[in-house]
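Helix-turn-helix transcriptional regulator
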Amino acid sequence: MSAPAAPVLSAVRATIIDVSRWDDAPLVGRAEELGRLLGVLERARSGRSSAVLLAGDAGVGKTRLLDELTARALDRGVRVLSGHCVDLGDVGLPYLPFVDLLRPVVADPTLAPEAAADPALAGLLAGRPGALPPVPPPGEGRDLGRPLPGRAAPQPIDDGRLQLFESVAGLICELAAAGPLLLVLEDLHWADRSSRDLLRYLLARLTDEPVAVVASYRSDDLHRRHPLRPLLAELVRLPVVERLDLAPLGDADVGALVRGLSAGVPERTVDDVVARAEGNAFFAEELLAAGLQGEALPLALTDVLLARVEQRSPATQQVLRIAAAAGRRVRHEWIAAVGGLAPTELDQALAEAVHHHLLVVSDDLRYRFRHALLREAVIADLLPGERVRLHGAIAAYLRSTPGAGTAAELAHHAQESNDLPGAFEASLEAAAEACRVGAPAEQAQHLETALALWAAVPDAAERAGRDQPALLLETALTARTAGELHRAIALLRSALELLGDDGDPALRARLHYTLAQTMVRVEDHTAAHQESAAAMALVPADPPSEVRTWAAATHARMSYAIGLLAEGDAAAEEALAAADALGLDSAWSDTAVSQVRSRQGRDLPAVKGRLEEALLRARRSGDLEVEMRVLYNLATVAFEAGQVTEALDWTRRATLRARDLGVEWAFYAAELRYLQVNALYMLGFWDESLAEADLLSRVPEMAAHVRAVGLLVQVGRGDPATRERLAWARGLLPRLDAHVLLSMVTAAAEIDLAGWSGDPDTAVDLAISTSRRLVKLWADDHLAVLRLVATALGTLGDAAASARLVGDTAEVERRQGQGQPLIELARSAVAAFHELVGEMGVEGAAWNSRVEAEVARLAGEPAVERWQAAVEAFGFGHVYEEARSRWRLAEALLASGDRTGASEQARLAHEVAVRLGATPLRAAVENLVRRGRLDVALPGVRRAAEVDAVLTPREAEVLALLAQGRTNRQIGAELYISEKTASVHVSNILAKLAAGGRTEAVAIAAQRGLLPTP
């Protein structure tokens, strides 16, 4: 790498990084830092000087934060003066940032007439910094004054510069006399010495003036001998100065930034940018643009990153190339072995790389690049032959030095150096290492690498110790454990195709039943049954064998899944008998679960007893996957019986074990996590529920419903971030259309959100489309439809109630018509369940009670008994829905004239809403209390008598008639006043409620509880 002149490179960097493309970008993740800067601003407004030294890496967002501060300052009436430092190498002009900062005074001398006439400022205000007094040689000039105890001595200042400095300070004070002032100096790391001296003087001089100073600099540019370092050490000792370090953004903030920069950006692109940007806002923007354009690393970003490398010594550049090829983190001995540098030269090169913030030393004493993209840029700049040679040298070192690295590292460097047989063997060993430490995702990745190399290694079968179909099966099983179900299916189909019809029957049978077990997890039950039947046809029942036993166990499960109970029973009995005969405890356990779950009507103690026996056998066999299936069913049985606390106990034990063994995103482990998040939500532990849903930011797509279920808490709380998570979930649905739980949870949250937002049309459309899809995918269990229907009907009931309030009969009929398809969906779902399965579970019965209550409400009936039934039905442990039903029960009791009962139900619902932080429900209950003038004390709710503080008694009467749709003439006739007087009262009501029309006034009054109860 050649090293062009430093000023040219620095100018390129300044141009690329500092050109503001963030004007419209959202400010995310900087609330705390902005708060501190605004605090400095407020001190200036109160008449006290203060300053902040804002530090951060290039591109981390300093300029964007300062832009926001500037905008907030201007909104507060604070004058802002900004100056920018520019790197001009050794020929920099003195005081350049202050010339920039004082341009407004040059443009308008009336801002500071006294200072504008000061001859000492003539050159500065004329924009001719070169005409100003030069920096005196060391030892010459006059000191500013004695240093304070513990403070470094200030640089000497000659008489001419002292006059200039005092004049600048006087100018700033004159400007501040007219109002508070904010001075912003950017890129202080490029400041010339004269500007640094002037800044030191000003910060020492300004103490009791309404002036705030914020100076930014790049911390990654400050090597040990950088001239700004001693000044910073001195300035932070001043009482008015504080330092603010701008750390990289968090992953969630980078994701929010990316979505704000490009609406509708795919989540895969967001995840990629988040992973690679490492909290740097500029890098995120560049990578986003590259992702949308199909580039790997943008040229502009590469230039910025390599500019810092190209300024270093040849030995340092060589060290960086070795480190880049070695990996993100590299041991000292690797660089020493591969680089061929003398020990002293190596130490000097590493010191230079560390001191200039290109490499940092990790806690494990390895070197790593300060930012991963810097490593990417260095790798991209390597010539092909150089890259191969470096990887080959590293691979040779690893082979010759036992314990120097891992098999995964050797596999990578062998492959990059074109040693494909060596990479193949090392990949298999790396997979074995990953298996030993319980890392299925990494194990699958290494096995996939070996499969990709199979054709390029002539003796692959001998080196691997198994043939290619067997390796495909092993990889598929590992991918399934890691939660990559679709990838597992593809691998199994490849193995079957490779074997052909003449392949080993036992291996083909195993592939078929493994494929069936995997396909059922992506809701393809019919195809799964076909695969298990194919497995049964390939191996005989006599003599019993392990393959036949598992084929029968799988076929029993698939037969039960599509309602072929007799066929399932026959296969189950064969599997249980063979498992006992062969001592296959895992196959016995798997079959017992399938058999027990196919008989919903059996008594609960017997079901639990059978499952607990299956758990014992599964653990005895050491088959973790079957053990997780048993645990999932134990939790599900308790959950369906309304024993949510017991279900939660099972899920906690299971998810902890899965996490410890590194299989938390395997199918049943993910389902247990989903059940746990849902149980916590239902029991009212909303903080814990949301925390569990967000435990890991990146999950396999087939486990996306675990994160999506967090939407229920967010919607219930009215969280503004709900729509962001909702957009993420909906973005997955086109690819995962058959993912029933993801579809159901997303739709449930979106329907609920539409309800609280007053959007019944969206709620109805979603409920109908999602319910039909669920019925299609889940042939024997349609009860999930009830939740969607009940919530959508509630939204329609709200719309119909509002229409009745203003006498809009046509609108009431339209909303009732919209409800008919929903009602039919719910009732057909219940009928189908009774026919295919039998009695509904506790939660299904609760939602069915809710549907019937909402049907009555849509018809305009109070239906107190139905709402009472809904409250009681949700009392099994669904805290939120019980409270929401109490709210509706309070409405029904109020309409029936039972004010005491309504008050009690409202109080109970309100207590739960407050405890959960369920803001929309809390507001709805409080509105009911106001509207109905209930005699119940709720925090923050006006008493009934306080309505008079908003409207006069006559205006309240007029408003009541407005709500009935009366005209001004009709109002006048009914109240015995003139039409003109009625019009005046209506105008007053519109003004007091800030309404644009009569209908809006009625809606606002209803929301604020100012309308009398019908």
